[in-house]
Amino acid sequence: MVRLPYTTALTTLFSYGLLFVFGQLRDFFRKLLGWIRKPKDQLKGYAPICLGLEDFYVRRLYLRIQDCFGRPIASAPDSWFDVVERCSNDNNKTLHRTEKTSRCLNLGSYNYLGFAAADEYCTPRVIQSLKEYSASTCSTRVEGGTTKLHVELEELVARFVGKEAAILFGMGYVTNSALIPCIIGKGGLIISDSLNHNSIVNGARGSGATVRVFQHNTPSHLEEVLREQIAEGQPRTHRPWKKIIVIVEGIYSMEGELCKLPEIIAVCKKYKAYTYLDEAHSIGAVGKSGRGVCELLGVDPADVDIMMGTFTKSFGSCGGYIAASKEIIQYLKFSCPAHLYATSMSPPAVQQVISAIKVILGEDGSSRGAQKLARIRENSNFFRSELQKMGFEVLGDNDSPVMPIMLYNPAKIPAFSRECLQQNVAVVTVAFPATPLLLARARICISASHTREDLIKALEVISKVGDLIGVKYFPAEPPKHLNQGHNKLE
Amino acid sequence: MASRIMDVIANALNLITSAFDAPTGAIIFGVPIDGHLMLEALLVMVIVFQLTKKSHKPPKKPLTEKEIDELCDEWVPEPLTSDSTEETMIEPPTLESAAGPHVIVDGKDVVNFASANYLGLVGNKNVIDSCVGSLEKYGVGSCGPRTFYGTMDVHLDCEARIAKLIGMPDCALYSYGFCTIFSVIPAFSKKGDIIVADEGVHWAVQNGLDLSRSTVFYFKHNDMKSLEAILEKINSRIKEPEKVRRYIVVEAIYQNSGQIAPLNEMVRLKEKHKFRIILDESHSFGVLGNSGRGLAEYCGVPNEKIDIITAGMGNALATDGGLCTGSVGVVNHQRLMSSAYLFTASLPPYLASAAIGALEYLEANPSVLTKLRANIAFLLKELSDVSGLATVSHPLSPIIFLKLKKSTGSNKTDMHLLDSITNQVLKEHSVLIVTTKRSSLDKCPLPLGLRLFVSASHSESDLAKAAASLKKVAAVAFS
Question: CA quadruple A281, A286, A290, A291: dihedral positive or negative?
Fold first, then answer.
């Protein structure tokens, strides 16, 4: 959990306050000028797209640091990539591409197992399937969009995850938002973790069920909420709930924490609630054979009712899946709108996932899968422990490849990002609204394709930049391990 | 006896009266206080005390832990999925080759009318070559959202290309066609705003309307009079028109009926009543108009008059993904407020290359549009006398929609009948056509029917074969 020191909180609030005051001043001048200049005739009588303070944050705060976000790249998102440089003539309001690129170390892409670039096993097979099936089927799964590849992948995913059957969707976001309304409706209760992803929130809102939130990763609070809700029943009528679904994620992408799955499953079983596990970041990345959070924490997949995941992160492709019992999957194939109306997943992308899973399971005849899994675990643990020794405030559990470094102050966000880029390390910084206002952070994603030299270079750069901008909130350990190393050599 | 009681009472009364009238000797505020005033003051105090006392309410007892335990043990949840699947869904055909005009199903060659491959780009060699180059350079996935190193130069090139074709200043590229519209609508319309939508819009639009939490009014399918009536009613009720955003949401070619929206009339109404138009051109982009620009070109309306255009690229452009264009303000707003743009990985780069390849092909070969139109006209003529089914789609719509002349009573039984027809057509005549599917969450009231997606790469013999097989099967089914 994040421990926010008082002085840091005060300085952060003060900075935001100052930015707010300046922003309001500028808005005042903008209004004055607006009165002087006449409004365009074609917009007269229409309400503007953004009224009043709705886009204040965007106009006055975000645009100043716009160059830290949305950086285009000109190569595959592998461990080293080419970042395109952009320039601006009007103080960051608009950015223009230039022809120059700089080769940077990639610490921001979700490339956990290193399948992002062309792979020796996967790419030839993907190109073969592209020539055979073309880039798209132009049709929905239930009409003319199911190919042999889709059927093969569904069986493979079910086998990999350990459930009876699986169903594919073309995009991870749609998997959540179009699925939750299908399995629960009015009269049901959804209890979701307070830090769940936007797609889950949208799906829960779109379903019409009542939504309650429990404190992030706290099974005792979940139990309290469950007891209270079952005893009270539906709001106002107090009828008993039709069903209750608890939604949690495997690895929370902004905290890097693993879910406390065994305790949460125990609570849900006791109160007969259904569980929905979103393994977008954890499938393929954690666990001895890459099977996700269930394998890592020793939970039987049969205990989780619905397991969801995406192929974007560890498998280097696109799309999502749901794995559950045969009855649930049969029902979804009949009524889920994303299956009935959306274009089916692109066949080369399906082939990429099939090949990637085969590599992970070792079915391609080599041990590359096991090597990748071992390497990502080593890399994550090494990087996290080194950062903590340097005195950074790093969140997240051991074995998780996502590690946020806390920055807090709004000015440190662009400082960290720009300084690192100058030294050819590309990092991702996240601020409001993806995180709470005071808790801005830089998020590092480790990949199995990072070598030890890459990580050491990254550590040097981050340490230098951290000293420069003052984000080493904790006391650093003295570097005695270096001396020990020297002694050993001698 | 009675007289003695009377004497006692009279004596008592005399005592009391003298006590009351006796001056106590106290003078407060210049008023002499007599005895009776003390009694009256006491009475008033008693009255005030009774009034201010709270009425007796039984105390609230919260549930004890034991009671909560009992309630939790008694509660029985419904099963996660309802068992209403007694109707077994017919398994969709599994394709064994590319979804072009001819496809292999179960080892047999089948004529394919189930893919929205309007320009015949599935299997196009140039597009495939550019995809192969893209795959070798970028890999398959983009491994990140647009804000976190998921923006590649192919995405920016694709956006610029599409914007140039449509004639708008900029364009935003989404990673999936299905979620484009249901992310765009909530980005622009919030609680308190007003949306007027056609009742025949497809599920993704309906979901977008729900997520936006705005007030939604539906007008009769493609009926401009109904639309005008609703617009007037809304405008007469709004008190502050400059503070409430108002939108009309329509599709260019409706998936559920094959009708085309009358854009000229709609633009006239929108300008009169100060609404903005959100137009979903998934099935008309690359199809309508002399150079494939879409409904605006076909109707002769300048693009600036349409505020927001969205389209899925999984149809004419034979790739995947979605796009949304408008003025500069519209596109920039989306890049920061649209959830399916921000919180999800970007479009795989090879699909963006496929889109660029498709646009290049369209620009170089505008005759493909004439071929498509000729195919549609031919097939419509052939299908004009099918027993039991009537074509209701627009003559220029590449989705040919046939509905039942007489419904069998419910959607379920209609679906059974139509499914049996398509099944027979596939098994006996090797032609793949499809029925419209309706999810249980779909609120569209339009009738079900059969759909044929015509492609520019269908030959005349393909079209003739499809029409002949459908006529044969329908004659048997409706005899």
Answer: negative
